From TrEMBL:
UniProt name for this protein: Peptidoglycan DD-metalloendopeptidase family protein
CDD domains: M23_peptidase
InterPro entries for this protein: Cell_wall_metabolism_enzyme, Dup_hybrid_motif, M23ase_b-sheet_dom, PcsB_CC
M23ase beta-sheet core domain mapped to chain residues: 295-391
């Protein structure tokens, strides 16, 4: 009996010596993985901070660019208005110039009339000088009869009235022409001043328009640089999430924990509590926020704020935070290189954290409109080996 017990004890002793080192090895491996996870967490925090800073700066630049664009549109409208005003003033100048020309003709005609009348008066004076001055009284007194006297009186009245009319007409013509000339020249000067002012305003507006164009170009360049930084931060965060997922897998293997992955192919669960309209497909499109062409990496499902977002399959949460244009975002690893991404989650609407295991159909978040979004909806992606693929075949 003792002989049988001894080998058994020896066997148990050997087994014990084997189990204890293995347990120590597993603990050591887990500790190392935890340290690596801790380092990754710090790197993720740094990357997230950098991404947030870039996103905030993009938002400021985008707002400034929008305002500058509005200002430039207003300036263009003012330039067009100033150009129209200049055109109207040009027409006005043409009209005033035409009036001046007409007045010039009237002046020439009036001066000709005045000259003709002056010649008539001068001719009479010459006759009077040559024949000697005869007073009106002499003419009347030399009448041979009363009827001759009356005739002479009428003739003298006619001559006096004619001379008076000539003098009055001359004065009237001279005054009228002088007045018209003065008024027209004054009007022309006023129009020229207005034209110069309008021309100066147009030049100033065009200078401001050019300045705005330069500013928009500069802001667009800044926006592009910041977006490159933002995209690089997104890639970095995705890579860190992948590394974290790999370390979590190693940790589960080391601790012999059960894998959360059960997906072997086939249809995924619908990511919302109820069916929703497809508002944007997995296609090339114009981003409704930035206005630039892009490849839409997923599909958008329109739903009210707070609508339950559900895990499309069993898996492990590898990201649960803010991510650039996605806003609040959750990424779930389902194993075999398959990820699902849930974007634009409402503020305080992420109900899971990194490292959580989730079940298919489990509530993980609430629909919102954070990040680059124009309204409440779920941005849903399926990624295979980190590359976005069309989610629709996985949901049908």
């Amino acid at each position: 009996m003792k002989k049988k017990i001894l080998p058994i004890l020896l066997s148990l002793g050997i087994a014990g010596t084997l189990v204890v080192p293995y347990a120590g090895y597993a603990a050591s491996t887990t500790e190392k993985i935890d340290q690596q996870l801790s380092q990754l967490k710090k790197k993720k925090a740094e990357a997230q901070q950098k991404a947030n800073a870039a996103e905030n700066q993009i938002s400021k630049v985008h707002s400034e660019k929008e305002q500058t664009t509005k200002d430039m549109k207003a300036l263009i409208a003012q330039v067009n208005e100033a150009s129209k005003k200049l055109s109207d003033l040009n027409n006005q100048i043409d009209q005033v110039s035409a009036t001046l020309e007409e007045n010039g003709k009237q002046l020439d005609e009036a001066e000709a009339r005045v000259e003709s009348r002056d010649q008539m008066l001068k001719s009479r004076l010459r006759l009077m000088y040559m024949n000697g001055f005869v007073s009106y009284m002499d003419v009347l007194m030399s009448a041979t009869s009363f009827s001759d006297f009356l005739n002479r009186l009428e003739a003298l009245k006619s001559i006096v009235n004619q001379d008076k009319e000539i003098l009055e007409s001359n004065k009237k013509d001279r005054d009228m022409v002088e007045q018209k000339k003065h008024e027209t020249e004054q009007q022309l000067e006023e129009v020229k001043v207005l034209y110069a002012e309008a021309d100066a305003v147009r030049d100033e507006l065009q200078a401001k328009e050019k300045e705005k164009e330069v500013k928009i170009a500069s802001l667009t360049k800044q926006e592009k640089v910041l977006e490159d930084i933002s995209e690089e931060s997104e890639r970095q965060l995705t890579q860190l999430a992948k590394q974290e997922a790999d370390l979590q897998a190693k940790k589960r293997a080391a601790s012999k924990a059960k894998s959360p992955f059960t997906y072997t192919g086939g249809k995924l669960g619908y990511p919302l509590a109820s069916q929703a309209p497809l508002t944007s497909d997995f296609v090339a499109r114009i981003n409704p926020v930035t206005g630039r062409s892009e490849n839409h990496k997923g599909i958008d499902l329109g739903a009210p704020k707070g609508t339950e977002i559900r895990a499309a399959e069993n898996g492990s949460v590898i990201y649960a935070s803010w991510m650039n244009g996605y806003g609040n975002c959750v990424i779930i690893d389902h194993g075999k290189g398959l990820w699902t991404v849930y974007g634009h989650i409402m503020n305080e609407g992420i109900y899971v954290k990194v490292g959580d295991t989730v079940k298919r159909g489990q509530k993980i978040a609430g629909v919102g409109s954070t990040g680059q979004s124009t309204g409440n909806h779920l941005h849903f992606e399926v990624r295979l080996n980190e590359k976005p693929v069309d989610p629709k075949p996985y949901l049908r």
